[in-house]
Design a protein that fits this description.
This protein is an alpha+beta fold and 482 residues long. It is built from 19 helices and 10 strands.
Length: 482
Amino acid sequence: MHEHQENHAGNGCTGEPSLSNEQLADYVPRLEAMARDRGLSFYPVDFELVPNEFMMEVAVYGLPVRMPHWSFGVRYIYQYVQHRMGGSKIFEVVFPGDPNRAYLVNDNALPENTLVTAHVLGHADFSRNNNLFDRMQREVGYHIVEQAADRAHRIQEAIEQHGQSRVETVLDAALALEQHVDTHKPLHRPPYPEGPGQSQPGSERTQTTFERRFRQLPGEEVAADSAPAGERRRLPPAPEYDLLWFIANHAPEMAGWERDIFLAVREESYYFYPVFACQIMNEGWASYWHARLLREAEFLPGRVYLDAIKTHSDVVRPYAGEQAVALQVNPYHLGFRMWERIVDEMGLDAALRIRAEEDDFSFVRNYLEQDLATELQLFNYARRPGAAGEERFLVKNRELHALRENLLKPRFNYGAPRIYADAVGLDGSLTLGHDHDSDGRGLDLNRAKKVLQYIQRVWRRPVRIATVDHAGETRILEHEEN
């Protein structure tokens, strides 16, 4: 799901909506033909004009119809307040698939929806041709909207059968762990091997070059089961980072419908992962193509083009406000400028290849050069305590390697701490570990205790996690059965 949301008040609607909609319907096939003529390829796109309230619901839930949970209501209230205060405007939401589904706001001005149409075509090309998107689409399926609606229906049936409270308890735990998947493992992965040298049918599959290299990294291969005959095998046989899969398959007393909910959340997490891991590339690519298509669309009236380009300038601007410098990079701006340079200096064929092969990690590390970083005024900063407890932000340096890694750090492991299932005890207790060395991220202890509580309610045995505190000392957080 791509959510195109800007933190500014947009242009007002100009002209009669019905006339604007007729003009937009005329522009869509022309823009699609232009995009294909210039080398883009994409599955069909179903465009739908919807009310702004519906758009906010889709942006918050992530899908037009999704499993019911109180947390989405909290997000909706925040989004609604932002919108009413004029600080947030959603232009479109698009779901990759075959076909793609794109929702546009029906009372936006014609220039805005014309730009959004071109923007969506860039997303559609990216999601069809990028290797990470393609792999996840093949694993999850190409009809996520229908699949999510079917899952929501099954969960509603579970609510009717088992009660709102029981189902919500399971959803609390599953959604608290939705970031804790291992996307290097297949969605439909086999069980652990049953013994030394044994594997489950279907466990062998052709690995990509990336996966073969990944498996060669220290600690990534599953350790051989060397336990002597008669001794209990270690569970899991090696640190397991796919917590949703592990709990669904190994929780001692989970009912079938509870496991289904965990696996449903896991499947949706796989679907959303490429959007997260390719945001700079993907939004930049869509922004590059909407600007290019509008510039080369000779059929657009001058007023429509000029108003659309004004919206483009708002979309890719680098700052949080007119004068304020943002401490977070606008991915539209950074990606747009990087793609502009790549096409200008390396050519469109090279850009199409990069679009297929990279994600944000390799894209930023390989193609964000020092001169562009300097031109974009990117810098590394540090937080310092100020007077009266206020935080101060100080510019440290503009060193390129640190810049790249600071840009990418929030994207590592879905933006979450790296937590793994370490061991299941003889009493069924679950011990989790925190790979703090690799993720460089501390735990919010209060949140961690709450998540442990959620997990314990579905694991139904004691649950603990080993981490370190700010002083580097080992901390064991526990939540035991009441």
